[in-house]
Hints:
The structure holds two protein chains of two kinds. Chain A is mainly beta.
Amino acid sequence: VQLVESGGGEVQPGRSLRLSCAASGFTFSFSSYGVHWVRQAPGKGLEWVAAISYDAINKYYADSVKGRFTISRDNSKNTLYLEMNSLRVEDTAVYYCAKEYAQGNDYGFDYWGQGTLVTVSS
Amino acid sequence: EIVMTQSPATLSVSPGERATLSCRASQSVSSNLAWYQQKPGQAPRLLVYSASTRATGIPARFSGSGSGTDFSLTISSLQSEDFAVYYCQQYNKWPPWTFGQGTKVEIK
């Protein structure tokens, strides 16, 4: 099972970037799971950023990115996206995609990608 | 938003000793709490969910307990590979899904 992020890099404040997360090797279809973006600023803890339901109908955002970031998915390509606009210096972080595990009341983020670094700097 | 507070920030433990990490929620999260382990340069790994259920492949030396607002993760006999940062996460009331700030378990 693999989640592989891509699209990170260095960008100036106010610019845009699009991250991708490609899933492979799952026993069941990628389209069966909710998926999330979680970020980690250098030397800091984990911050949840955005989530999307298995069918892409429901989307959720942290207040810190609402109105600037857009989460989406293409289940035909087993790929998750994060469109990041109006980037700020404080968005600098490693961005991880993470798959949900949800069985009844049991829940967690059971698979994570290796992360992609986004650096926002002038 | 539910705020998760972990203590201590750093825990110094000798190999083979027991380590107990704490996590407190600003309001009840029932048993809807997970623990993650993160080693330097790696992604987090799910250890425990539903406060006390070990995830697949997690050794029995890891145990979680608690409900409501107070939780703990115990590592019964620390191995060299257990020195890492540990995060708790609540999923009772979302969004947002919130993490604690982490506890670093270091070698004494």
